[in-house]
Write a structure and sequence with these properties.
The chain is of the alpha/beta class. It has six helices and seven strands. The strands form two sheets. It has a five-stranded mixed β-sheet with strand order 4-3-5-2-6, with helices on both faces.
Length: 137
């Protein structure tokens, strides 16, 4: 699956934080989960923003929803899922494209038949829109 970093924000701000430059401002509070690709991305791209590092992910989206933070930049799949989960409060920011690009894969035992079967299911659900419908349902 192809993915990339995108911002999630309160719905009222979905047209505000649409670029790295719009986020990298001294008055913008960016939630950061430690130890992963989001932290590496945030440290590299937001030297001027207020990076609020959380001990874990459990409160990040509640902080955004309750105005204790302004934005989180994370994998697009998580943005879509959390926006659906916090419907009418959190939204994907209106970016023209992801801030970066990467591929995702499943880690599984080395079994060619299993890989072929999993690839077929994933490909079918990506191509027929089932995956996208699940994220935005």
């Amino acid at each position: 699956m192809h993915d990339g970093k995108r911002p999630i924000v309160r719905c009222a701000d979905k047209d505000r934080y649409t670029s790295i430059a719009a986020i990298d401002r001294r008055n913008v509070r960016v939630e950061v989960n430690p130890g992963g690709t989001n932290q590496v991305f945030d440290n590299a791209h937001f030297p001027h923003a207020q990076l609020n590092q959380r001990r874990d992910n459990t409160g990040i989206f509640d902080d955004l929803a309750s105005d204790r933070a302004d934005v989180m930049v994370t994998d697009g799949a998580e943005v879509d899922f959390q926006a659906r989960h916090h419907r009418d409060v959190l939204c994907a920011a209106e970016v023209t494209r992801a801030f970066d690009h990467f591929d995702k894969a499943y880690w599984m035992t080395r079994d060619p038949a299993l890989k072929t079967a999993v690839d077929a299911v994933v490909r079918k659900n990506l191509e027929n829109g089932a995956y996208r419908r699940f994220l935005t349902w």
